[in-house]
Write a structure and sequence with these properties.
This protein is α+β, with helices and mostly antiparallel strands. About 55% of the residues lie in helices and about 15% in strands. The protein has 17 helices and 17 strands. The chain has a five-stranded antiparallel beta sheet with strand order 2-1-5-4-3. The protein has a five-stranded antiparallel beta sheet with strand order 7-6-10-9-8, sandwiched between helices. A hairpin with a 2-residue loop joins strand 8 (about 260-265) and strand 9 (about 270-275). Helix 1 runs antiparallel to helix 7 and helix 11 (about 420-435) packs antiparallel against helix 12 (about 445-460). The longest helix is centred in the N-terminal third of the chain and has 83 residues, at about 1-85. The chain starts with a helix and ends in a 5-residue tail after the last helix.
Length: about 600
């Protein structure tokens, strides 16, 4: 019987149903087309942006690494110049006519000690220094493998430039050190005069390896130092096969001072960046596999297209089923809900077929019977929940500086600073007498300001840089606010504002009344936040408490909203003092408003 009725229904309304199906399917296709177009455009933009950002980031990091290497080399050169003017160095190169043997030993010891201190300043960049006295044919160094004074050695290396190796024969395939020789001789171009003083500064290739290893640990590159005709300096974890292929390419295409290009090696694309060292005449090279980084984007694009095709098939199939089995019951349910919305709880829904909608209609009927009772229960529960929430939020606000204050009292007592002990004890007593009084959930603005004076006096005793100013009109003093509403905000300014500033430490508390709104501003001259971080913090105040957030400001914001309504809140802005501003805004309850603000308009 059901089949006959269904067939009769289809025969009677077939053309109309097919037309609706066609419209729904056409709509699905039309919706899919702009999505695919926008995604394709977005994917291309993403691909270009990622590629460009990768190039910029790689260049920036490589420039930073080159700058670090050049900075350390510059420090060695500066030390050599300054060291050459050291009185003990001058004494070492002097005639030593009147100096005894002990004095000469003492001079050598002092020079070696200074070179050792300078050389061991950083573990990542150990340096070697040697002082050559052409006058006395002597040399002092902070390392052991010194070959003694050799005048020809000095003439060969005194070029004024950093050289890889010192001109002595090296074993095949052996890595060498970088050398720089300095003399303060006034002869032609700093040449040797026969009584010149020469400072030798050098560092091992391992110093470069240390810097390359540190750089590689933070990214996906394969950095190395390259100079045509010399063995490259690779990181200790370098891909030697890839590096050899790239070195062969660089030998044929000499890099410029700063260059960046995409190179094909063994069928794969690599981003090759080059920065020339300012002192070494070597190129710092970094190679990044583009395919490995950008392949996930291509895979995501292909997966999206496949998903869109499957979704299209599913959508067309689902449109048929939805129309047949869902549209009518949903329409019936909507009509019933509209009647309930208008207060008609006697509405009942019935289904002929035994399916999911019959269960839904049954539950709807149960809901309409119970909703009246639930309204009263929920209303009462909301009242109790609001009171419990207020107490819970107030209890969570607990200052954590008692131990520090007690430690301050102990220290001042040991130092016989009786005035400081009495002042701290008085303010601490007044502070905790107020915070431990829980019989009232609210307090006046004047009472809260007295607490802030106690708290700021305590902080001022511990940090003499803190200066505060309170400017609140007498008109605001009598208004009621939640207890401990302002203290967490001021504590935040002390810890994150003044505590992170090394110059001044000013905190300003001011307030004003704007119609039926009260505003209190807490300003500090600390480092403040960027506009982006301020916007993010304001947004977090509107959501639930997150794990990474401190509960003080969030709890204070919730207490203000619970006490005064949704028009009240905490707002964060840039302070006129240059730091951070917290603005407390609340709506004055009608019972506390002045009589002139309660008069109807037009009177």
């Amino acid at each position: 019987m059901y089949i006959k009725k269904s067939m009769a229904f289809i025969r009677g309304t077939g053309p109309r149903r097919l037309s609706l199906f066609a419209k729904m399917n056409s709509l699905i296709i039309i919706l899919f087309i702009p999505i695919i177009i926008l995604y394709s455009y977005s994917n291309d933009v993403t691909f270009d942006v990622v590629s460009e950002e990768l190039q910029v980031s790689n260049t920036r990091q490589l420039n930073f690494l080159a700058g670090q290497i050049d900075s350390r080399i510059s420090q060695m050169m500066d030390f050599s110049v300054i060291f050459s003017k050291d009185p003990n160095v001058r004494k070492f190169n002097g005639l030593n006519i009147w100096e005894d043997r002990y004095g000469r030993m003492q001079t050598r010891y002092v020079l070696q000690e200074k070179m050792m201190l300078q050389a061991g300043f950083e573990d990542m960049w150990p340096a070697r220094y040697a002082v050559y006295s052409q006058q006395n044919k002597d040399v002092i160094a902070n390392y052991d493998d010194i070959n003694g004074f050799d005048n020809e050695y000095l003439k060969r290396n005194l070029t004024g430039q950093w050289n890889y190796g010192d001109g002595r024969p090296a074993a095949p395939g052996a890595m060498q050190a970088f050398y720089w020789f300095y003399t303060d001789s006034l002869n032609q171009s700093g040449g040797l005069t026969g009584s010149s003083l020469v400072i030798e500064a050098s560092f091992s290739y391992e110093n470069i390896q240390n810097m390359l290893d540190s750089y590689k640990a933070g990214g996906k590159g394969n950095p190395f130092l390259y100079h045509k005709g010399e063995l490259p300096i690779l990181s200790r974890t370098a891909d030697k096969e890839l590096s050899n292929d790239l070195i062969q390419y660089l030998d044929q295409h000499s890099p410029e001072s700063r260059t960046q290009q995409v190179v094909k090696l063994d069928g794969e694309s690599y981003l090759v960046s080059s920065v020339k060292s300012e002192y070494l005449d070597w190129h710092l090279i970094d190679v990044v596999p583009l395919d490995q980084i950008l392949d996930p984007i291509s895979f995501s694009r292909n997966l999206f297209y496949l998903s869109m095709f499957l979704l299209l098939l599913v959508g067309i199939s689902a449109s048929v089923l939805l129309y047949r089995n869902v549209q009518r019951p949903i329409k019936k349910l909507i009509n019933g809900l509209r009647r309930v919305q208008h207060g008609d709880y006697s509405v009942r829904l019935y289904a002929k077929d035994n399916n999911e909608f019959s269960f839904l209609f049954h539950r709807f009927n149960d809901m309409s019977r119970q909703i009246q009772d639930l309204i009263e229960n929920v209303f009462n529960e909301k009242i109790r929940a609001r009171e419990a929430t207020l107490k819970q939020l107030q209890a969570q606000i607990n200052p954590h500086f008692l131990y520090n204050c007690l430690g301050y009292i102990i220290n001042m007592a040991q130092m016989k600073e009786e005035e400081a002990v009495v002042s701290m004890a008085y303010n601490l007593s007044a502070y905790y007498r107020y915070t431990t009084r829980m019989e009232k959930e609210t307090a006046t603005v004047e009472e809260e300001l007295k607490l802030l004076v106690n708290y700021l006096d305590i902080q001022k005793l511990r940090n003499a840089r803190i200066e505060y100013q309170i400017d609140i009109s007498r008109e605001m003093m009598g208004y009621s606010i939640p207890r401990l509403m302002l203290q967490p905000i001021v504590e935040n300014s002390v810890i994150h504002g003044v505590g992170k500033s090394y110059s001044s430490g000013e905190i300003r508390i001011s307030g004003e009344i704007d119609g039926n709104m009260c505003r209190i501003y807490i300003d500090d001259d600390g480092p403040g936040l960027t506009p982006e971080l301020e916007a993010a913090l304001n947004l977090k105040m509107q959501g639930p408490l997150q794990e990474e957030m401190g509960c003080g400001l969030w709890n204070t914001n919730q207490r203000i909203i619970h006490q005064f309504g949704s028009n009240s809140a905490l707002l964060f802005k840039q302070s006129p003092l240059g730091g951070f501003r917290t603005e407390v805004v609340w709506e004055i309850p009608p019972e506390e408003l002045p009589a002139k603000l309660l008069k109807p308009q037009g009177e």
